[in-house]
């Protein structure tokens, strides 16, 4: 594709025509300076990832030394007074809120993607796709503001219904008990679900479009319904990228700070109910970081950040791997 | 046989309804959020927001001037750091690395950084800039924002430069231009719409980012243009004002949210318009 | 044509941004700004004082109310000129960290509640009941423990949503200190500090956060400085004090608490004002201490001392207007001589 493959990158200036026998003094030609700068920039871009992990790991060493790895992970005691810190409630909070976001968000995203690609008439496709993408443009602090001031009071009206109907189911009923505050773990999960919709659905949409027309057409020719084409042909074909997209959304949900901090209720105590307040690693960082009084406190907070990075890194790594896998299969740019 | 067909048709109809409902849900929440931003944000708009600084609590005054200036400074410095690095890194990928193992690794790592949670980057900026300096600063905030911006610019630059046809480059080489002149004066110029799009999208991404600024730039109730100290900024002011019980503060939080959303939407639309031109030219 | 216009405007805005940037780099540390951080309790007072101080002297006091915990952390780290904390540091801690502290003004915290139909001041609570609510033992508003104290009031069958601070707070210290005095169970299970392991409840950031949650959630209760309740027209509960009388949060009630301690005698002004005796004393009274570093630059410390001295002398009416009680003149004199003895210089 690029004729420049051959030409660019080779020093075509006059310097290359000098005889090679004599030792050349080091010339700082425009090309080598530029090349060096570009290489340096690429190096910086590539190593920010490692720099982040190393710097954060370094600043957590005080806390790691004090509490160890397993001890910190399973301890539920977060007590700045006695200077004992444990990550368990925040890990659970992060996982639970993100799980709710995925459980609610993935089906809706799938529905949106299928609707736009397979079902919608031509004139609706672009506006709807644009509208969904706008959801991603809204800053997360606006989500938080809306969540607390607008959504929570409305949701507080719905919560009594939730605790009466779902709360009565034996077994999982305990998940839905509690006063109707409007804020809490469930609210945070719902807001997160809305936030990840554009990311998951747009990746699904992109990969659905990559499916060869011939595949679709032959399925239709055999008499398949729209749903069957979507579920039995398109989805299996794009499976790895779809999973990658879901992981991408999960990565976003795990690391989301501002929206969650506004509506999760900031309780460092583990509760069995989704209607009760909780905390996630990002929300406790946002709340307590600037007020951590001791080195151990700060280090423990950074330790929490390290745990978060470990989890999101694994998730994002898998996501990129899976999405690129499909791209490579198709020969299209990932 | 007829029963199976009827069932399949029913499933198809039900699924179509569900998919449409899902879309309606998505659009509904978008409209709700935008409606709320307009409803609460527009009444809070006063000229004072741009001419006066943030007022102390318990008064009826309005003002966000220091926050706007601080945010502009933060965004400006982030761009000054992020755009050159992103542009050059993307250039390396497209013009020197091509499809090599190294380049593909860089692209992979870059894609991972694309979705990095901003709070992690904020922690890194704290560890790398705030802690050594001994105090909070706008500089640390800009570093964090730049790191968030770079992956976007790298990726867009890489893709846009790759699209530039070989014939343009060959013509320049034939005229005797050295490689770096070819890249900067010809290839960059040809791809400038696309590169600009990347910068705009990157800018849209970091506008409104609060978490990384919470423990880097912090906040400042007074007007200040000093990037080596805490500086006022819109997102942290929204955070502080929104969670307060003071009516004028809450109104200002919404007004600031409205302006932020407007700014981001305009940036996104302009970026998309540019992207459209690039697609047409392809 | 349109596209080049866009490029021109983009270039122009970049140029503007660059020049503003140049301004930023050129502008060095502001000579006329004092930075402080800490207690949200004292924030309304410092904000009022600094606004007037600026118009009179041109000197800006930049105060960030991030909670007493943050104030202590920042002054220890030397990133601010003064740290404000509602929890006084113990003399041995001050000595170890090279710090000094002095009080500012007296005020009180009250329980703010959101009960539709029940006006401000109508609800009466006792320390024991508050402790039980915050322990999670009393869960509903029509619990007999509460109705017993409020015979004339129709309390709803509503869940109590407890609101506490999510950040490190001197108000929390004052509140929990009071609870340890009136509830042995609280003392044993939770204790008292700027940040505690709350058995139940929702966490708000800053007093603003608590007041904000109480405003929004029906059936909620939270502890807030009285100044904030006044500012936000919130509802406050009356309390039964140590003398067994029902009292309202008033400036007089806070000052009565202060009158029972000997400021001048206390080393480093370490006094606790909760649960003081007296018929009209407000039980949850407290104070804010300003903390300085001994080895901070002399000019920085002098600037801080000058500001607060100005406040002691000229700011008393402002303080009283938001229910902050001025320190007695003898205490102010004691503070001035404390500065001289501890730092080696005064103002």
Provide a brief overview of the structure:
The complex is a heterotrimer of chains A (334), B (282) and C (347). By secondary structure, chain A is mainly α.
Give an account of the 3D structure.
The complex is a heterotrimer of chains A (334), B (282) and C (347). Chain A has 14 helices and no strands. Chain A is mainly α and 334 residues long. The two termini of chain A are 17 Å apart. Chain B is mainly α. In chain B, α1 crosses α12 and α7 runs antiparallel to α8. The longest helix of chain B has 40 residues. The N and C termini of chain B lie far apart (51 Å). By secondary structure, chain C is of the alpha/beta class. Chain C has 2 domains: 131 residues, 3-Layer(aba) Sandwich (D-Maltodextrin-Binding Protein, domain 2); 152 residues, Periplasmic binding protein-like II (D-Maltodextrin-Binding Protein, domain 2). Chain C has an 8-stranded mixed sheet. A 3-stranded mixed sheet of chain C has the order 5-9-10. The N and C termini of chain C lie far apart (66 Å). The chains are: A mainly alpha (334), B mainly alpha (282), C alpha/beta (347).
Which range best describes the helical content of chain A: under 10%, 10-25%, 25-40%, 40-55%, 55-70% or over 70%? Answer: over 70%
Strand content of chain A: under 5%
Give the helix proportion of chain B (percent range). over 70%
Overall form of chain A: globular
Derived from helix and strand composition plus strand pairing, the structural class of chain A reads mainly alpha
The average pLDDT of chain B is: 89
Rg of chain A from C-alpha positions? 26 Å
Q: If you compute it from the alpha carbons, what radius of gyration of chain B comes out, rounded to the nearest whole angstrom?
A: 24 Å
Sheet with most strands of chain A: none
Mean pLDDT across all amino acids of chain A: 86
How many strand elements of chain B?
0
Largest interface: A-B, 102 and 102 residues
Distance between the termini of chain B: 51 Å
Q: Spans of chain B of 5+ residues with little confidence (pLDDT < 50)?
A: none
What letter string, H or E per element, gives the SSE order of chain B?
A: HHHHHHHHHHHH
Q: How many distinct beta strands of chain A?
A: 0
Q: Could you state the oligomeric state of the chains shown?
A: heterotrimer
- N to C succession of SSEs of chain A: HHHHHHHHHHHHHH
Beta-strand fraction estimate of chain B:
under 5%
């Amino acid at each position: 594709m690029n004729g420049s493959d051959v030409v660019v990158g080779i020093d075509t200036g006059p310097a290359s025509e000098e005889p090679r026998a004599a030792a050349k003094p080091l010339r700082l030609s425009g090309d080598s300076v530029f090349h060096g700068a570009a290489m340096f920039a690429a190096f910086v871009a590539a190593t920010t990832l490692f720099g982040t992990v190393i710097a954060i790991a370094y600043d957590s060493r005080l806390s790691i030394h004090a509490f160890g790895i397993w001890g910190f992970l399973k301890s539920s005691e977060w007590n700045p007074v006695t200077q004992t810190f444990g990550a368990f409630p925040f890990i659970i909070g992060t996982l639970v809120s993100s799980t709710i976001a995925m459980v609610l968000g993935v089906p809706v995203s799938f529905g949106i993607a299928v609707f736009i690609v397979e079902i919608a008439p031509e004139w609706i496709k672009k506006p709807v796709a644009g509208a969904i993408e706008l959801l991603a443009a809204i800053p997360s602090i606006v989500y938080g503001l809306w969540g607390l001031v607008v959504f929570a009071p409305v949701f507080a009206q719905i919560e009594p219904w939730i605790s009466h109907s779902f709360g009565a189911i034996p077994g999982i009923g305990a998940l839905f008990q509690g006063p109707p505050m409007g804020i809490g773990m469930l609210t945070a999960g719902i807001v997160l679900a809305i936030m990840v919709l554009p990311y998951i659905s747009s990746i699904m949409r992109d990969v659905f479009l990559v499916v060869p027309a011939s595949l679709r057409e032959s399925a239709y020719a055999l008499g398949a319904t729209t749903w069957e084409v979507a579920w039995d042909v398109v989805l299996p074909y794009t499976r790895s990228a779809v999973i990658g997209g879901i992981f991408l959304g999960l990565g976003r949900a795990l690391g989301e700070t501002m929206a969650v901090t506004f509506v999760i209720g900031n309780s460092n105590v583990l509760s069995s109910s989704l209607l009760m307040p909780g905390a996630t690693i990002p929300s406790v960082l946002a709340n307590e970081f600037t007020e951590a009084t001791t080195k151990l406190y700060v280090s423990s907070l950074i330790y929490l950040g390290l745990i978060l990075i470990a989890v999101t890194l694994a998730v994002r790594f898998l996501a990129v791997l899976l999405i690129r896998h499909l791209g490579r299969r198709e020969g299209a740019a990932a | 046989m007829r029963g199976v067909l009827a069932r399949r048709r029913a499933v198809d109809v039900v699924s179509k309804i569900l998919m449409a409902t899902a879309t309606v849900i998505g659009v509904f929440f978008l409209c709700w959020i935008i409606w709320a931003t307009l409803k609460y944000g527009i009444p809070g708009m006063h000229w004072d927001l741009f001419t006066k600084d943030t007022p102390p609590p318990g008064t009826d005054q309005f003002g966000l001037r220091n926050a706007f200036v601080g945010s502009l400074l933060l965004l400006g410095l982030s761009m000054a750091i992020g755009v050159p690095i992103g542009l050059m890194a993307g250039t390396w990928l497209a013009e020197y690395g091509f499809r090599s193992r190294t380049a593909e690794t860089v692209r992979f790592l870059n894609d991972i950084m694309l979705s990095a949670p901003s709070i992690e980057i904020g922690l890194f900026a704290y560890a790398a800039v705030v802690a050594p300096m001994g105090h909070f600063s706008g500089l640390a905030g800009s570093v964090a924002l730049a790191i968030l911006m770079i992956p976007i610019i790298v990726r867009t630059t890489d893709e846009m430069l790759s699209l530039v046809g070989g014939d343009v480059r060959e013509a320049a080489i034939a005229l005797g231009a050295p490689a770096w002149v070819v890249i900067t004066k010809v290839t960059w110029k040809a791809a400038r719409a696309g590169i600009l799009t990347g910068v705009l999208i990157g800018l849209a991404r970091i506008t409104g980012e609060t978490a990384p600024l919470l423990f880097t730039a912090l906040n400042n109730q007074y007007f200040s243009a000093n990037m080596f100290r805490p500086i006022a900024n819109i997102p942290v002011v929204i955070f502080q004002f929104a969670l307060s019980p003071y009516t004028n503060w809450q109104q200002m939080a919404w007004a600031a949210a409205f302006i932020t959303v407007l700014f981001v939407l305009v940036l996104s639309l302009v970026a998309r318009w540019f992207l459209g031109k690039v697609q047409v030219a392809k | 044509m349109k596209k080049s216009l866009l490029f021109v405007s983009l270039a122009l805005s970049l140029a503007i941004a660059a020049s503003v940037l140049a301004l930023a780099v050129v502008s060095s540390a502001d000579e006329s700004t004092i930075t402080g951080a800490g207690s949200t309790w004292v924030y309304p007072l410092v904000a009022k004082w600094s606004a007037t101080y600026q118009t009179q002297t041109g000197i800006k006091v930049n105060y960030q109310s991030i909670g007493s915990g943050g104030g202590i952390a920042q002054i220890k780290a030397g990133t601010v000129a003064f740290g404000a904390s509602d929890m006084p540091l113990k003399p041995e801690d001050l000595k170890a960290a090279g710090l000094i502290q002095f009080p500012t003004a007296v005020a009180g915290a009250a329980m703010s509640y959101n009960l539709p139909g029940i006006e401000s001041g109508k609800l009466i609570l006792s320390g024991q009941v508050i402790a039980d609510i915050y322990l999670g033992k009393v869960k509903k508003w029509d619990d007999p423990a509460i109705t017993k104290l409020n015979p004339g009031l129709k309390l709803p069958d509503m869940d109590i949503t407890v609101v506490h601070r999510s950040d490190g707070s001197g108000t929390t210290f004052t509140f929990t200190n009071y609870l340890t005095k009136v509830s042995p169970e609280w003392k044993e299970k939770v204790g008292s500090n700027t940040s505690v392991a709350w058995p139940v409840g929702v966490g708000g950031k800053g007093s603003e956060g608590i007041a904000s949650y109480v405003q929004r959630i029906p059936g909620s209760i939270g502890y807030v400085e009285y100044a904030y309740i006044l500012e936000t027209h919130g509802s406050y509960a009356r309390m039964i004090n140590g003398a067994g009388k029902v009292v309202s949060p008033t400036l007089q009630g806070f000052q009565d608490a202060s009158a029972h301690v000997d400021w001048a005698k206390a080393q480093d002004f370490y006094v606790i004002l909760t649960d003081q005796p007296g018929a009209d004393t407000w039980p949850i009274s407290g104070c804010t201490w300003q903390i300085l570093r001994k080895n901070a630059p002399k000019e920085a410390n002098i600037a801080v001392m000058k500001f607060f001295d100005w406040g002691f002398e000229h700011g008393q009416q402002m303080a009283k207007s938001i229910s902050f009680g001025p320190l007695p003149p003898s205490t102010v004199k004691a503070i001035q001589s404390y500065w001289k003895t501890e730092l080696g210089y005064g103002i």
